[in-house]
């Protein structure tokens, strides 16, 4: 990609502050939690440095310093970068749909809600391709930064049926690709909004601030990845409410916060004051709608991970092509945790659930896990939780828009495909004659309130 080449291989000054951070990674192998935590620290520190020294010149000097430290050929570096973004940018043949891009869809709909009546001379950015370019930058960050690094942390070899960056090249290449993805995201915001540098700086700062949140969330994600006996002991020491509180912080940090940033970019990118009367209110609610959409997506995808392959033909809207992959990585979710702590699950079955974490599962194991989740009532509870968040968003946030956000309502209704997941579990339960207990309605109420309470908590305190 010539565009990548032009923006990566530049002439600038070495940045001693960035080099100081990057040198912390020079002697580690990136194959342990300790190493992953160091990467998270470096990413947060780069975000913090740029926040206090924000300019395109500082971003370029950071890119230049990283390339010098990487020390590989231009061809090799470009191969790493291009490979990291193949899934979202690969050419789509005919009319077949490519990789789903809920992040770009969310941006466009929230952006269009407050700008579609603006004529060209009223807009901050006159280019008609601007909203699509923002979408491309968002996807670049998601794949070149978050997935490139997350795959190293999780030791994942494949994503969307392609080799991950570290597995195709090596771990250090993937780490440098990820950090460069962060820096290029900021630079591209300056490029696509070059006609208005005030807006460019504002949008880039939003993404840089979120990058800090992301690598706070990744620390929690590592804590909740039970890939050793020592880490599994946390499940025995902590109460359910404590673990669920950590889980909510995790999904906010690594997903909800990202969609929140997208919602904020949608609100701040254009001259919406020319179209609507309540611009300040939209600045507040657009990020919150984004946050809820991200949280819903992650909870839903976690639940979808339990759908066995034989049911994929019945439910193919955004679901993975394998099942129980998160459990095999050692990751838990709300449904699994509720089952694990359920009074209706005996000690032997609870031990089974703990033993299944970070283990290659057989079909028998997966079916047993689904039976225990069904028996505990956790599947029904999670479905109701998602519906509660959707209803809260529709009733209390969409009403603030002066025009009916029809397509946004449709996007949130589409997420209610979760109900179809419940149908598939019912079919499996009937087939195998599983029993089921009622879920704890008080726990559902508490979880709903805890997630909705996020909108009242200042961002900088949500992960404390």
Largest β-sheet summary: 2 strands, antiparallel
Roughly how many Å apart are the termini? 41 Å
> Roughly what fraction of the amino acids lie in strands?
under 5%
**What overall form do the CA principal axes indicate?**
globular
Walk across the major sheet and give the strand order: 1-2
Structural class based on helices, strands and sheet pairing: mainly alpha
Mean pLDDT: 91
Number of strands: 2
Radius of gyration: 22 Å
Helix content: 55-70%
What order do the helices and strands follow?
A: HHHHHHHHEEHHHHHHHHHHHHHH
Low-confidence stretches: 92-98
Tally of alpha and pi helices: 22
Q: Can you characterise this structure?
A:
The protein has 464 residues and is mainly α. It contains 22 helices and two strands. The chain has helices at 2-8, 16-22, 33-52, 56-70, 74-84, 86-89, 102-113, 130-154, 165-168, 171-192, 197-223, 229-237, 240-268, 279-304, 325-329, 334-341, 347-356, 363-376, 378-396, 406-414, 418-432, 441-452; strands at 158-159, 162-163. A two-stranded antiparallel ribbon has the order 1-2. The two termini are 41 Å apart.
């Amino acid at each position: 990609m010539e565009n990548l080449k032009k923006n990566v291989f530049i002439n600038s000054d070495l940045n001693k502050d960035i080099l100081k951070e990057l040198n912390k990674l020079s002697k580690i192998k990136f194959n342990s939690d300790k190493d992953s935590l160091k990467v998270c620290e470096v990413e947060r520190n780069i975000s913090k440095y740029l926040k206090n020294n924000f300019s395109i010149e500082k971003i370029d000097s950071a890119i230049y310093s990283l390339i010098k430290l990487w020390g590989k050929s231009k061809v090799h570096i470009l191969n790493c970068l291009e490979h990291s973004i193949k899934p979202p940018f690969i050419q789509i043949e005919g009319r077949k749909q490519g990789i789903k891009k809920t992040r770009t869809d969310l941006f466009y709909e929230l952006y269009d809600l407050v700008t579609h009546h603006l004529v060209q001379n009223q807009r901050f950015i006159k280019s008609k391709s601007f909203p699509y370019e923002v979408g491309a930058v968002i996807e670049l960050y998601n794949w070149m930064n978050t997935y490139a690094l997350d795959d190293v942390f999780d030791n994942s070899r494949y994503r969307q049926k392609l080799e991950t960056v570290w597995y195709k090249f090596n771990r250090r290449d993937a780490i440098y690709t990820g950090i460069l993805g962060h820096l290029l995201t900021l630079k591209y915001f300056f490029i696509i909004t070059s006609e208005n540098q005030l807006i460019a700086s504002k949008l880039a700062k939003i993404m840089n601030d979120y990058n800090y949140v992301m690598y706070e969330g990744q620390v929690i994600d590592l804590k909740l990845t039970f890939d050793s006996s020592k880490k599994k002991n946390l499940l025995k020491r902590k109460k359910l409410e404590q673990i669920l509180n950590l889980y909510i912080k995790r999904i906010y940090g690594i997903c909800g916060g990202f969609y929140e940033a997208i919602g904020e970019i949608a609100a701040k990118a254009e001259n919406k004051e020319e179209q609507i009367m309540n611009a300040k209110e939209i600045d507040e609610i657009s990020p919150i709608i984004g946050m809820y959409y991200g949280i819903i997506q992650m909870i839903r995808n976690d639940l979808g991970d339990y759908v066995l392959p034989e049911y994929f033909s019945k439910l193919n809207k955004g679901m993975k092509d394998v099942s129980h992959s998160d459990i095999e990585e050692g990751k838990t979710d709300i449904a699994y945790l509720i089952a694990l702590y359920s009074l209706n699950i005996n000690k032997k079955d609870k031990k089974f659930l703990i033993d299944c974490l970070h283990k290659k599962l057989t079909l028998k194991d997966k079916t047993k896990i689904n039976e225990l989740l069904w028996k505990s009532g956790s599947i029904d509870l999670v479905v109701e939780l998602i519906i509660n968040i959707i209803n809260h968003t529709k009733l209390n946030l969409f009403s603030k828009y002066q025009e009916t956000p029809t397509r946004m309502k449709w996007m949130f209704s589409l997420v209610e495909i979760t109900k179809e997941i419940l149908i598939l579990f019912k079919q499996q339960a009937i087939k195998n004659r599983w029993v089921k207990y009622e879920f704890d309605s008080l726990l559902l109420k508490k979880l709903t309130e805890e997630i909705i309470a996020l909108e009242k908590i200042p961002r900088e305190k949500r992960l404390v």
